[in-house]
Write a structure and sequence with these properties.
Blueprint (H helix, E strand, L loop, with lengths): L2 H4 L2 H12 L5 H8 L3 H13 L19 E9 L4 H8 L5 E6 L6 E7 L2 H12 L5 E8 L13 H11 L4
Helix pairs in contact: 2-7, 3-4
Length: about 170
């Protein structure tokens, strides 16, 4: 069974609610959707086993805990070394995201730091010491206007609800 076949209205609703607050008890989730908590439990287990739900997490305001320096780094690596570069970059704690891109650069990396000194240390002593990193370009974030971890499911829920409730 593919992920596409599993994602009906109820599963989208479960994902949507958990995205807003991953600590919602299954009993409360069931009440909100109008199904049994056993059904919620079974469906969540299935979503986890299929890899649709990767983990339950919290969303922290990094600025309030002292990690208020954010930057994106474009990284150019030696030809054919992107996978090796990613393996090393993944071990650097300040790196939050790594995206493979197709441009002048090969990777887009998101980092957070407590200070400019800490950010410089991450770049100079960690990223630039990787032998197959050839060039970087730093883009410092001045202010974040929107930061989400998941795309809104509002449109998907609307479409799935028409099928679920038999609306044409």
């Amino acid at each position: 069974m593919t992920a596409k076949n599993v994602l009906d209205y109820v599963n989208f609703k479960i994902i949507d609610i958990l995205n807003e607050n991953s600590s919602v008890p299954f009993v409360e989730l069931a009440k909100q959707i109008g199904i049994s908590d056993a059904t919620v439990h079974t469906r969540v287990k299935k979503l986890i086993s299929m890899g649709i739900i990767k983990k339950f997490s919290i969303f922290v305001d990094n600025n309030l805990i002292g990690y208020d320096h954010l930057a994106f780094i474009m990284v150019k690596v030696e030809k054919g070394k992107a996978d090796q570069a990613v393996m090393v970059l993944e071990t650097i704690e300040e790196i939050l995201e790594i995206h493979e891109i197709y441009d002048k650069f090969d990777l887009l990396v998101k980092i957070r730091a407590k200070s400019l000194k800490n950010m410089r240390d991450t770049i100079v002593n960690k990223i630039l010491t990787i032998s197959f990193v050839k060039e970087i370009e730093l883009m410092t974030v001045l202010r974040t206007r929107k930061e989400e971890q998941m795309v809104s499911l509002r449109n998907d829920l609307y479409e799935k609800s028409k099928d679920f409730f038999g609306i044409g």
